[in-house]
Design a protein that fits this description.
The complex is a heterodimer of chains A (277) and B (516). Chain A is of the alpha/beta class. Chain A has a single domain (38-276), classed as 3-Layer(aba) Sandwich (Rossmann fold). Chain A contains ten helices and twelve strands. Chain A has helices at residues 2-21, 43-46, 69-86, 98-104, 109-114, 130-143, 161-174, 203-212, 260-268, 273-276; strands at residues 37-38, 54-55, 57-63, 92-97, 106-107, 122-127, 148-152, 177-182, 193-199, 222-230, 241-248, 253-255. The longest helix of chain A has 20 residues, at 2-21. Chain A is globular and about 90 Å long. The N and C termini of chain A lie far apart (93 Å). In chain A, 47% of the residues are buried. Mean pLDDT of chain A is 82; it is low at 25-34 and 261-277. In chain B, α7 (144-153) crosses α12 (212-222) and α13 runs antiparallel to α14. Chain B is extended, with a radius of gyration of 34 Å. Chain B has a seven-stranded antiparallel sheet, with no helix packed on it. Chain B has a five-stranded mixed sheet with strand order 5-6-1-7-8, sandwiched between helices. The model of chain B is unreliable at 349-356 and 402-419 (pLDDT under 50). Chain B has four domains: 7-74, MutS, DNA mismatch repair protein, domain I, CATH 3.40.1170; 78-222, no CATH class; 238-353, DNA polymerase, Y-family, little finger domain (Dna Ligase, domain 1, 2-Layer Sandwich), CATH 3.30.1490.100; 424-515, no CATH class. Helices cover 32% and strands 29% of the residues of chain B. Chain B is built from 17 helices and 24 strands. Classes of the chains: A alpha/beta (277), B alpha+beta (516).
């Protein structure tokens, strides 16, 4: 009996200590159901993740080749647009180093709105080098003020395990989608996912135009994505994959490019055969 | 007490930074346009001796006194210098007024004995002002009007004993009462040259002929009517200061003192319902060096913790540290750009719960980053409200603005038609020249070379003609025809052709942006 009472008292004390030690809940105005991650709109990609969403935390987006660095950065911004679409009061932060801005141009406001981002909800930080960029990322993730962050870095050489782990901890606890857009993948890091991004030809769009006898038009931004690492994969099914996607800025979602043949079939229904030929 | 700086404009010119280059040792006069003619506005003693006087036309001066050096007048600089001199006179009295264009009035009532009596006061003032390079005339009298009259009409500094002002004023010229010049001439035509002749004249007749204002001036001088001064009172800076018994060098101590200073400053700002958008910290080092640090905020601040936090970020961002070799013995915090700051209910609630609203959290973050990486580092996207070239139409500006101006809003523009963005994600400023390898006249390039790589174009959209505002110089030459291009790899470019095929020189091609 006495033993039981003692045991109970110890348990009670343990509980109280656990309560005291528990960190206060992070300051966030986000609604609870939105905490899991970011919906991308592409079913097949979503299926690779728990709950069908890209989880909050740090993700690495590397360009397939140096010439495709703008596409990798663009993919990061598309993910930011998807995150901001979900959180109506959220704010995004873009970080650019002097090297990357000089090499492939500074971010252009109207281009952001073309991607579906509201430029008024996005701030830009220009830093000299990677070290400063990491400081900004650290400050920004810990402040709890952001919904999404995209950092374009020249090289991932300075990224290491402990740095990305720290970023991950603060990003996950505040519900921030943090994207590191790199020209080459970092040698080692604790990022949640790794993507290789390349440009995709909007060939379907061009072929369609040819069929209609019009001048070809550029389609929606098109990318070839390869998910090469996924630490938050879905319990069942494949965790990695490769896709060709189009970005729809109006709904802030990815979609598979419309198949060429389906479109042709649609066109032939009300047209003479000569148009197809 | 009235100070008359009788040669203010010319004295100022001699003390100006470029006086050495101009070599102003000779007689000097200043000239300004009045009506159709250039007339002198000020002369120095040497020029006056040669026959120049204010009001004389420039041509007359050239004829009468060719040696006089004539320079353009600058009334604004004169006024600024007068203000500065008035500030310097605050050591004598807190109540002072500037009497443009060249006078300063000090209320010395009951204060002269602090400086050893009126004679010693005048001597001290004269020594300081002439030391600064300005000639002056000083008069102390019962009323500002009397002091004005005696300062302007006596040849030396005078102190009129209490109660004798009226008697001595009677002997002065009527001009001493500050009437308009035409009234002076009118009075002189009437034979009324001395103040004494009009003091006892019938008031009703005088008022009819000269206007009420003239009699008011007389009454003010004689003390029969109150003559309020437009006192310029000292504006106390919003400043907190700590003198330390023991100099400190460690950054942790400095941060601690900054927090103390901000805590000292907060109640005063709160009392006025204001917050500051800019703070300056001055660290006085033991060997006399002063280190100045400034931080800006995107919103008015007064919360001590937030202010101290910004300075901590600023200290972190210093390239060569605090340089606290011998330690600092005096720290001073000044609030610079003040703006109204009214606490909202939300603030009270969040203040109680210890949490910040998301918008505040973002403002705090941007302030912190600006303090650490410089105000220009953190930027926002703005769209200019004019139709211009792309690189000018949309720009980024510093989020933490230096002056207090309303932020320009970025209005969303329709930039998307049927899927294709019309504007690129990234922009090169200035545009980068490219070499077009295969060109169809008036059409998009089929191949071009950029950064040593040839790119084959499979799809092109355009042209979209963008020209600068037609009323700007060179607008015709700057017309650009933009194309959106996609190469065989799927990379997309925004290029433009500048110039027309009809021109003598062939059009040039530039790459301005990249699409995602």
């Amino acid at each position: 009996m006495g033993q039981d009472l003692k045991q109970e008292a110890v348990e009670d004390l343990r509980r109280r200590i656990a309560r005291l030690e528990r960190a206060p809940p992070p300051p966030s105005s986000k609604a609870a159901p939105e905490r899991g991650g970011v919906r991308l709109g592409h079913e097949e990609i979503g299926a690779r993740f728990e709950g069908g969403r890209l989880p909050f935390g740090v993700h690495e987006v590397a360009a397939r080749s140096a010439a495709e660095a703008p596409q990798a950065f663009g993919f990061g911004l598309m993910l930011m647009a998807a995150a901001l679409r979900q959180d109506a009061r959220g704010v995004g932060l873009i970080i650019q180093t002097a090297m990357t801005a000089g090499e492939s141009g500074g971010v252009y406001g109207p281009g952001l709105s073309a991607l579906g981002l509201e430029p008024a909800r996005v701030a830009l930080v220009r830093v000299r080098n990677e070290i400063d960029a990491f400081r900004v990322i650290d400050d920004a993730l810990r402040s709890g003020a952001l919904t999404a962050l995209v950092a374009e870095l020249w090289s991932g050489a300075e990224i290491d395990l402990s740095l990305t782990r720290r970023f991950n901890l603060s990003a996950e606890s505040h519900g921030v989608l943090a994207i590191l857009a790199l020209r080459e993948p970092a040698p080692q890091s604790a990022v949640l996912t790794r993507w290789r991004v390349g440009a995709a030809v909007s060939s379907a769009e061009i072929a369609r135009a040819a069929l209609r006898g019009r001048r070809p038009r550029l389609g929606r931004p098109a990318l070839e994505l390869a998910l090469t690492r996924n630490r938050r994969g879905a319990a069942r099914g494949p965790r990695l994959g490769e896709w060709c996607v189009e970005w729809d800025g109006e709904t802030s979602s990815f979609r598979a490019p419309e198949a060429l043949c389906a479109s042709v079939a649609g066109q032939t229904a009300d047209r003479p055969d000569a148009a197809v030929a | 007490m009235h100070l008359w700086l009788d040669r203010l404009p010319t004295d100022r010119m001699r003390r100006s930074p470029d006086a050495k280059a101009l070599d102003l040792s000779g007689p000097l006069a200043l000239v300004a346009r009045s009506g159709a003619a250039l007339r002198l506005t000020a002369v120095d003693a040497a020029a006056e001796a040669l026959g120049a006087h204010p009001g004389l036309s420039l041509a007359d001066v050239r004829a009468r006194a060719p040696d006089v050096r004539v320079l353009p007048a600058d009334p604004a600089a004169d006024a600024a210098r007068l203000e500065a001199l008035a500030e310097a006179c605050r050591r004598y009295s807190p109540a002072l007024a500037v009497d443009p264009p060249d006078g300063i009035v000090l209320d010395m009532t009951g204060g002269a004995h602090l400086f050893g009596g009126e004679a010693a006061l005048m001597a001290d003032l004269r020594r300081r002002v002439t030391g600064a390079g300005f000639s002056l005339r000083i008069a102390i009298a019962d009323t500002p009007g009397l002091a004005w009259a005696f300062a302007r009409s006596s040849a030396t500094d005078v102190s009129i004993p209490v109660g004798e002002g009226a008697a001595q004023l009677a002997g002065l010229s009527v001009a001493a009462l500050r009437p308009p010049p035409d009234q002076v001439r009118f009075l002189q035509r009437l034979g009324l040259r001395r103040v004494g002749q009009i003091v006892d004249a019938p008031r009703a007749a005088l008022a009819r002929r000269l206007g009420r204002a003239f009699l008011d001036r007389l009454d003010e001088a004689l003390g029969r009517r109150a003559s309020p001064l437009a006192l310029s009172l000292e504006v106390l800076p919003h400043r907190a200061e700590r003198r330390l018994l023991e100099p400190i060098a460690a950054e942790a101590f400095v941060q601690r003192v900054i927090l103390d200073l901000a805590t000292d400053l907060a109640p005063r700002l709160e009392g006025e319902g204001k917050g500051a958008r800019r703070f300056r910290l001055e660290l006085f080092r033991l060997d006399g060096a002063i280190k100045r640090l400034e931080v800006g905020a995107s919103r008015p601040l007064r919360d001590p913790a937030a202010v101290a936090d910004l300075f901590c970020a600023r200290l972190d961002g210093l390239n060569d540290g605090l340089e606290a070799e011998y330690g600092f013995d005096l720290l001073r915090l000044t609030a610079l750009v003040l703006e109204p700051l009214i606490p909202l209910t939300a603030d009270l609630v969040s203040g109680l719960s210890g949490r910040a609203a998301p918008a505040d959290a973002f403002a705090a973050l941007s302030d912190r980053l600006s303090a650490r990486f410089g105000g220009e580092a953190v930027r926002r996207f703005v769209l200019r409200a004019t139709y211009r070239l792309p690189e000018e139409a949309a720009v980024t500006e510093a989020l933490v603005r230096r002056a207090s101006s309303p932020p320009a809003e970025f209005s969303a523009t329709p930039t998307q038609i049927e899927g294709t963005p019309l504007r690129p994600l990234r922009l090169f400023t200035p545009p980068q020249p490219i070499e077009v390898l295969a060109e169809i006249p008036e059409g998009p390039p089929a191949r071009f070379r950029w950064r040593r790589l040839a790119r084959r174009i499979v799809c092109a959209e355009g042209p979209e003609r963008i020209s600068p505002e037609w009323w700007r110089a060179g607008a015709d030459e700057a017309v650009r025809d933009y194309y959106r291009l996609e190469d065989e790899n799927g990379c997309r470019y925004w290029v433009f052709r500048q110039g027309l095929y009809t021109d003598a020189a062939p059009p040039r091609w530039y790459l301005q942006g990249l699409f995602a």
